[in-house]
Write a structure and sequence with these properties.
The complex is a heterodimer. Chain A is mainly α. Chain A contains 14 helices and three strands. By secondary structure, chain B is an alpha+beta fold. Classes of the chains: A mainly alpha, B alpha+beta. At the A-B interface, helix 7, helix 10, helix 12 and helix 13 of A face helix 1, helix 2, strand 8 and strand 9 of B.
Chain lengths: 362, 635
């Protein structure tokens, strides 16, 4: 193998992501200790699986994806259809399918698939002077197809997340002013329209509860209130590893998955939560650097998409945990418990490393 | 590839990337500010809140749906159930607390300590120690409640069986969920339904199990603030539980109570249904048991008593007891013969008391024979030889076909689980079961309901109802409708025809005439005990005797009496009730079974008249207009 690959390997990016994984493991251990048994061990196993799966993604030149992007996208869309047809129902929604004994959540992989498909499209139709509505029609379809399938599950959180990534990418790529104005108007009118015609009662409840947690102090409001108490009570230095009374007394909901950050904030205080926030900003920064330095358009676009995805996942999760955003079920990347999400983020990381490693290759 | 790197528009793209990043940093600064606010600025406050986290969420058990009869009379209600629990979080001295509770409710101290130590879950969730406290226990605990932090007395509800044991095999009972049920039920959970937890009580068997989902309702919650001893000091919020849905059954409680009384001290089944829609009106298995025994866990003593009773009170004979149908089967042979054109109304056979086939002799129950017999007389006097004669002409497969059309050989589809399908023998069946071919001689006993034939009492009732309905079989069921706690009907059971089959009008009439005379003709086997005392309402039916064969020895055992059958319906021409009695070891169908069915059907019409405000004397009068109106109007 070319020595330059090793020389150019982005250790900073890799180390930042591993740091987040480590923080996740510590807090998953604390959150599930003495309770549901082997969740910590399962996550360790998933870390091993994800790191192994990352190796070929790093090594094989990412430009093969130029040919595979649409095929991968097609596979993910087929999986989403399969979920609707015979997925497993849990908590009132169909989100998982079982493949070879593993529970897979295709909506996680849809994020990456959409990013790849968009990268493929935009490298072919590059417009430095901004895109018109007509030129964005196909990418819109690329995003809306999985959006509609995921929204049907129903998982409005993950579905909306896809639109968020896509529109952010559009903005960074630059769109014509007229379209920008039109999209802004559409964007602003979406929430009331969704509210009136689309949202399930439980989703409306979540939004209302965010605005006023006391209106449902036992249901979703209870989660938010308890999460805020946990975060706040951490103070400057935190209560110490496995000493969080909120976490240990199981006042917190989903404390090893979506609410892992509240365990962290309670037990490690502002020092721990600030450090984690900083690591995530670094992760996004390094990801963006990969995009800036990439040596071809395709790599640049993939890296941009992944940076955007990391950013929004982290932001939405953190905002949710500290009571600034409704509870939508987006995990904290690399930190939260959950195999599908961890694997997907690791694969994305692998792509970034791949792109950055080959930045001097041409 | 056209690279545009280094060109101005590319620098513009990179600039936009950086701008986007700084917007992102700004977003993160917002998060950081919020963290600073929560953790540093308000940190002391939240630290205090968490230390005082005295907010507890307590479940409020939802009242389970009630079960009523077809006229809305309450059969199964709820009553308060007092539970003593320990909240580990609040306990200061487990040993002395366990000792106190142990002495108050007579449970070994060590057992309580073990239960508390072994139970997992949040420390503020109460661990139930004993349910169903009686008043003395409750008083003992209440007096010293405040001396023992961690002691909690909760109230939920348990079943109250207003009329004692009413068809417990069909209504079921409640008992604590076991771990395999926990897993199975949680797998089938619907959106918005509570998850099942250890300690929940769920329906076991019968209607309580079949409609568990509808009956359970949704739990409520209350958030309370507790002091350092775990005592509630304020209720902060409350979500009321959603009561379970109420079930209205097809049972007629008064008829059911009458049937239970009628069948007291007997072993077997007495049941009645409406052949026009399959609604079960009354159903008695005897002997039976008291569903109350299960609430709070059945004791070892009671369990052994039920298990070891030689009359098997736990067996649901009506749908799980499989008996030879005996002569009640003869209508199938007759129907097949008439429909297939093998015989007609006037065909006769001479019965001289026996029938030879090859070198075997099959006997008629009447030694001297019946003489010249047509199909009607064969039914009325239950002549065996007439039906033996049909065996060869029809063949086993035709018989099986008609048996299935009239509901035998497969579960009837009643809405409780565990039903058996009986056996309609065919050559394939025998090949599969014994690996042997069918011998033509074996068809002969089949024609009179002996041999390999097996039926459940419910199947026989359904079959006789179907004969009254020109062959139409309706799926029997116990649920009539479901209503919410405000009384709105949310579901109504639609009658389902189980088989796309009808007899020709002519055949149906011949069969009905025959069954009419079984009861109402002087020579009929049920004449002496089966006639209704109403001149305008006649019952039709058929007696039967199921030979009790000691299967191990392969021959009849001498000292055990046969099972007695009677199946019938009324009124003959437009039946609205079909009933069956099976009396185990009762002897003959005419003396042991037909009076029970007659009494039940008589009671049915008396109740109907009474509810319509018609004086009982009208029923016994010939040509009373009120009775005619009663029969014409649908019930």
């Amino acid at each position: 193998m070319d020595k330059r690959y090793i020389k150019n390997f982005d250790w900073r990016l890799f180390a930042t992501a591993l740091g987040l994984v480590g923080i996740g493991l510590i807090n998953i251990y604390s959150a599930t200790w003495g309770g549901q048994g082997n969740i910590f061990v399962k996550q360790l196993l998933w870390v091993a699986i994800a790191l192994t799966a990352m190796v070929p993604v790093v090594l094989v030149d990412y430009r093969v994806l130029d040919r595979l992007s649409y095929a991968l996208y097609g596979i993910v869309v087929a999986m989403l259809v399969a979920v609707l047809a015979f997925g497993r129902i849990s908590l009132g929604a169909r989100r998982w399918i079982d493949i070879a004994g593993f529970s897979v959540q295709p909506s996680e992989y849809a994020k990456l698939a959409v990013i790849l498909a968009l990268a493929k499209y935009f490298q072919k139709y590059w417009r430095a002077d901004g895109y018109t509505a007509k030129e964005l029609a196909l990418p819109m379809v690329l995003a809306l197809t999985p959006f509609a399938l995921i929204a049907r599950q129903p998982d409005l959180g993950s579905a909306g997340f896809l639109l968020l990534i896509t529109s952010t990418i559009f903005l960074i790529l630059k769109v014509k002013r007229r379209l920008l104005i039109a999209l802004s108007i559409l964007g602003l009118s979406m929430p009331p329209l969704l509210w009136m015609f689309y949202m399930h009662d439980y989703q409306k409840q979540r939004v209302l509860t965010l605005l006023d947690p006391q209106r449902d102090p036992l249901g979703k409001g209870y989660h938010i209130i308890q999460s805020i108490i946990a975060v706040g009570s951490g103070g400057m230095a935190g209560k110490g590893f496995m000493q969080g009374s909120q976490s240990q007394l199981k006042f917190l909901p989903e404390q090893h998955t979506d609410f892992i950050f509240s365990v962290l904030a309670e037990e490690w205080g502002f020092i721990g939560s600030g450090l984690t926030l900083f690591l995530i900003m670094l992760l996004v920064y390094f990801a963006m650097q990969v995009a800036v330095n990439a040596k071809d358009r395709f790599g640049q676009l993939i890296a941009t998409g992944i940076a955007v995805m990391f950013f929004w996942q982290a932001f939405i999760n953190l905002a949710m945990v500290i009571g600034l955003f409704p509870v939508v079920g987006v995990p904290l990347p690399f930190v939260s418990y959950g195999g599908s999400a961890l694997l997907m983020n690791m694969l994305a990381l692998g792509l970034l490393l791949n792109i950055s490693m080959r930045r001097f290759m041409f | 590839m056209a690279f545009t790197f280094g060109q101005p528009e590319d620098r513009a793209f990179k600039l936009r990337l950086r701008i986007a990043y700084f917007v992102g940093v700004f977003f993160f600064l917002l998060l950081g500010t919020r963290l600073w606010y929560l953790q540093l600025f308000r940190g002391e406050f939240y630290r205090h809140e968490s230390e005082q986290n005295s907010i507890r969420v307590k479940e409020i058990v939802s009242p389970r749906g009630m079960i009523r009869d077809r006229f809305g009379k309450l059969i199964i209600d709820n009553k308060p159930n007092y539970i003593v629990s320990i909240v580990p979080e609040d306990v200061s001295d487990l040993a002395s607390l366990a000792e106190f509770i142990g002495s108050a409710v007579s449970i070994p101290t060590e057992q309580i300590v073990q239960k508390v130590r072994k139970t997992r879950g949040p420390r503020f969730r109460p661990i139930p120690i004993k349910r169903g406290l009686d008043w003395v226990e409750l008083a003992r605990l209440e007096t010293h409640r405040h001396d023992y932090p961690g002691l909690e007395i909760e109230v939920d509800s348990r079943r109250s069986y207003i009329y004692g044991s009413i068809a417990p095999h069909f209504l079921g009972y409640l008992s604590e969920i076991n771990s395999s049920e926990l897993e199975a039920l949680n797998k089938r959970i619907d959106a918005g339904e509570d998850r099942y937890q250890q300690g929940d009580h769920v329906g076991k068997g019968g209607i309580e199990k079949a409609y568990q989902k509808q009956l359970r309702g949704r739990e409520g919650y209350k958030t309370v603030r507790v002091d350092s001893h775990g005592r509630e000091i304020a209720e902060l919020a409350r979500v009321e539980p959603e009561p379970g849905l109420n079930l209205n059954l097809t049972l007629d409680l008064e008829l059911q109570l009458y049937a239970r009384e009628l069948f007291k001290d007997k072993v077997g089944v007495l049941l009645a249904l409406n052949p026009q829609n399959g609604e079960i009106l009354a159903i008695v298995n005897a002997p039976s048991y008291d569903p109350e025994m299960w609430s709070g866990g059945i004791s070892q003593k009671n369990w052994e008593m039920l298990r070891d009773d030689p009359n098997h009170p736990l067996v649901n004979r009506a749908i799980r007891g499989q008996y030879p149908p005996g002569s009640t089967y003869k209508i199938i042979t007759a129907a097949a013969g008439l429909e297939e054109g093998v015989i007609n109304e006037r065909s006769t056979v001479t019965c001289n008391g026996s029938f030879r086939y090859g070198n075997r002799t099959f006997r008629c129950w009447k030694k001297g024979g019946h003489g010249k017999v047509d199909v009607k007389k064969a039914l009325v006097e239950s002549c065996d030889v007439f039906f033996y004669e049909l065996a060869e002409k029809l063949g086993i497969n035709k018989l099986a076909e008609y048996a299935r059309h009239l509901g035998l050989g497969k579960p009837t589809g009643i809405d409780v689980e565990g039903e058996k399908g009986g056996i309609v023998p065919t050559p394939e069946w025998k090949k599969k079961r014994f690996g042997q071919p069918w011998y033509p001689g074996e068809t002969i006993p089949i024609t009179i309901g002996q041999g390999y034939n097996l039926t459940t009492p419910l199947q026989v009732a359904v079959m006789y109802g179907a004969v009254g309905m020109n062959g139409k079989v309706y799926q029997p069921h116990l649920l009539r409708s479901v209503s919410d706690y405000q009384g709105n009907t949310v579901f109504t059971y639609e009658p389902k025809q189980a088989e796309e089959f009808e007899l020709s009008k002519k055949t149906a009439r011949i069969l009905r005439d025959g069954l009419d005379d079984v009861v109402n003709d002087r020579k009929g086997t049920a004449y002496w005990y089966g006639r209704l005392p109403f001149p305008d309402i006649r019952m039709a039916g058929k007696t039967g005797t199921a030979q009790v064969v000691n299967y191990k020895a392969g021959e009849r055992s001498g000292d055990i009496e046969d099972h007695a059958w009677f199946a019938g319906f009324a009124p003959v021409d437009n039946p609205e009730i079909a009933a069956v009695a099976l009396v185990e070891n009762g002897g003959s169908g005419s003396s042991a079974a037909s009076p029970l069915v007659r009494a039940l059907i008589q009671k049915y019409f008396e109740l109907k008249a009474e509810r319509a405000g018609i004086p009982p004397t009208d029923l016994t009068q010939k040509g009373a207009a009120t009775v005619n109106a009663l029969l014409r109007g649908r019930n």
